[in-house]
């Protein structure tokens, strides 16, 4: 051997790696080794291939790339000696997986090795095949494996059996070839062959009904006998674990019997005796014994009904449940879950113990127990169980609270015997874990509250009390604010007092305090603040004495940085200031929300509900009302019972909202946001639209709110000064129109006009798109792109590139310039034409790349534009 | 079936990985990262099962090493626990009171043993003695091949002198 060709020994490399003090040092060692190995591979060095492969495997385990060694595995496998093959196959299994094409190259070597005279080489090939073979290889080599199932040495037979499992999993069509040889393995005496043979038969039964019928007919009795012999066998040191002979074989036999007994009374009948024996005689003080009992219970519960056995099984689970070992309790809970369908009554007996497990220290056990409790709840025990769960909510871990909250909400919604109980429980959950309550759950609560007219007073007072202690729970705040907005007068006047309540004294200003806290709290998000703003508007009318104060709070939001709040504040302010006469009608109480519709929606698709709700508001480009299905109908002006003044008020508002395009399109940056804001209000007031049952108004309001969150970004980086001036200029025309000098008739929508969008914005650059369509060609959108430089450097060599998915076609016209002056002193424009072949089905989407030079230095910006209006 | 076997040290270093279901390299390192985070942080007396991405991971700590096996939801967790113990006993018998260093420097031996114990994610042999015998037979095959090679090179060296 050439002493100069090698690197270090494997042992030395591992030492060097372990001696590295830093990650960088370790990387350096690995890099050096890899370089040496590559060099050795290039020289096609035979002597050290073996050692190199071992090193590569170690390097691979550390997580470094080793793909360059894959071909070496193949070479090692192809070499004649056993040591090379052994390490070669190990490398193959470690460095490759079934999806790599290199693997196909090994098929031929495998085939040769499967026919090798040395049985250990046959074993290596079977092992590799069983662990990583792909469907193609399975097809090619199945005949070889099938033949090896009858090989003289049992150690090859057992490997071939497991290899067959992989093959039939990859190619289920091949299953029938294996049925006969597999069945004959069941008669073997050698434990290894028996274990693998039973396992193969189990998998065959799962893939092919033909196999199931065959094995059931031919082998059920034989398997029962084997299990009996095994259970009664005397002590045998080779297979003994904790006093039981071969628990692994026990478990596999029980598993196969389960598959055979399921749905077949005769087969089930023939195994009853042995199951009873295993269930009663197995020692249960060690893991092995318990594993067998657990498997046996599972089999008893799955095969055809036998009352006596089931009782036995449930008793075993009861014993497990009171075991001190957490593992045993875990599997008991797991099994009881399956037993519920078979015998709910028996499981109910263990309810108290299960409830204790919900409070266990161990997250795995808690999770299982909670799921089990969830299944065990019914009309009769719901009150008791929910009380326990809610009590536990107070002390539970933060990471468990989410799960627990969801389950409680779901249980109380499903089984609540009466509305007051449901409201009580939900209020408890909201005050304990309000931040974990999902949107649809508190929407549901509001729907129920709205429907329980006799409980309005009670609920709003309870919420008021809860708010005093738990104001940090966002969803509690939302529900409270909503209820105070709607039923604030009941809070103050103690209307609808129930016997169980303690009377409380709340003044009008106390009620306004709550809403003020909610709206001014820093932690409140946009949804909460918007709800609070609406509540304030309502309170201004309900509490005349506080009207002025409410007005002041609303005025403070006229300069809010969030456009949605700013706009609403301005609008609400004009309603309070100038339209006293229509205000009471505008802020009437919400009509009762329709439970059936809400439940239907909920069942439909929750995330979908939100997106369909936003769609219409986007497609109303200039705020012209359009009868869209899920219109928000918060105030329901056009419903029949609305008194006369509303119609004239409606006209004013229509004009207010119809503001028309001129102010909005002038301020292109804020265009879309302000418009959709208008839409929201329009929807909110629902003028001129046919009255739609106001099923899910809260949902819609909120979803349109959230849709407004994104496009407001351009406002953020304007100075507060210009913001407020813009706000006033925005408000100007509305005021005029509200003055009502000439309520002009509504102008109809003349052709599609789209708001301009801010397609891309970084700290240094803004790109806005003006979108137009040519008449008569709805598929094509003409985009006028305007680039604005937000930095103080001039950009030169400015190049804009765009890419679109296949269903779109893109045409770029030359840009107006390739130099972009600093600080917004001018801009580059460029027009694009996009043709959407899936018009109406898919909306536009675009990837962009902008390259330019700052002082001669290259800069690259990339982004994706997906905020195009939907119907382009 | 067993989807993968992992040996992780208390420091989160990987000592052995065996994948019986297809996972890409990227997924593998993600799995290892996630699981070592979950398992190493569990308190000592809790149960040995962790539910993870629709599967269950059965783990057991032996000295400084965590042995983990990921199984299907319907598999018998207690049996897998026993299987881990079975594997550890075989390692122990082979190395003679095995320690982490044995598994570091002779990681390939540990893989050979595992390959005699599991194939395709299923148990192959329930007898520790049989596994030991098969490994010993293959080791001696390697030894004799080595001796042959060295005596051959000696002869060549003699001849070319």
TrEMBL record, chain A:
Domain GAE: 752-869
Segment forming the signal sequence: none
Record flagged with keyword Transport: yes
Keyword terms of this UniProt record: Cytoplasmic vesicle, Golgi apparatus, Membrane, Protein transport, Transport
Low complexity compositional bias, start-end: 636-647
One Pfam family this sequence matches: Alpha_adaptinC2
Chain segments carrying region Disordered: 636-655, 690-720
Predominant location: membrane
UniProt membrane topology term: Peripheral membrane protein
GO annotation terms (biological process): intracellular protein transport; vesicle-mediated transport
The keyword Transport is annotated on this UniProt entry: yes
UniProt cross-references to InterPro entries, sorted A to Z: Adaptor_Complx_Large_Subunit, AP1_complex_gsu, ARM-like, ARM-type_fold, Clathrin/coatomer_adapt-like_N, Clathrin_a/b/g-adaptin_app_Ig, Clathrin_app_Ig-like_sf, GAE_dom
GO cellular component, one term: AP-1 adaptor complex
Superkingdom of origin organism: Eukaryota
Subcellular location field: Cytoplasmic vesicle, Clathrin-coated vesicle membrane; Golgi apparatus
Function, in words: Subunit of clathrin-associated adaptor protein complex 1 that plays a role in protein sorting at the trans-Golgi network and early endosomes (TGN/EE). The AP complexes mediate both the recruitment of clathrin to membranes and the recognition of sorting signals within the cytosolic tails of transmembrane cargo molecules.
Family: Belongs to the adaptor complexes large subunit family.
PANTHER family named in the record: ADAPTIN, ALPHA/GAMMA/EPSILON
Record-given protein name: AP-1 complex subunit gamma
Lineage, highest ranks first: Eukaryota, Viridiplantae, Streptophyta, Embryophyta, Tracheophyta
Record gene name: LOC101506366
Automatic annotation (TrEMBL), chain B:
Keywords assigned by UniProt, alphabetized: Cytoplasmic vesicle, Golgi apparatus, Membrane, Protein transport, Transport
Protein's cellular compartments: Cytoplasmic vesicle, Clathrin-coated vesicle membrane; Golgi apparatus
Membrane disposition: Peripheral membrane protein
GO biological process: cytosolic transport; intracellular protein transport
Gene Ontology CC terms, in alphabetical order: AP-1 adaptor complex; cytosol
Stretches of the chain forming a coiled coil according to its record: none
Domain of life, source organism: Eukaryota
AP complex mu/sigma subunit domain mapped to chain residues: 1-140
Single Gene Ontology MF annotation: clathrin adaptor activity
InterPro entries: AP1_sigma, AP_complex_ssu, AP_mu_sigma_su, Clathrin_sm-chain_CS, Longin-like_dom_sf
PANTHER family for this protein: ADAPTOR COMPLEXES SMALL SUBUNIT FAMILY
Family note: Belongs to the adaptor complexes small subunit family.
Function noted in UniProt: Subunit of clathrin-associated adaptor protein complex 1 that plays a role in protein sorting at the trans-Golgi network and early endosomes (TGN/EE). The AP complexes mediate the recruitment of clathrin to membranes and the recognition of sorting signals within the cytosolic tails of transmembrane cargo molecules.
Subunit structure comment from the entry: Adaptor protein complex 1 (AP-1) is a heterotetramer composed of two large adaptins (gamma-type subunit and beta-type subunit), a medium adaptin (mu-type subunit) and a small adaptin (sigma-type subunit).
Protein name: AP complex subunit sigma
Species, as recorded: Cicer arietinum
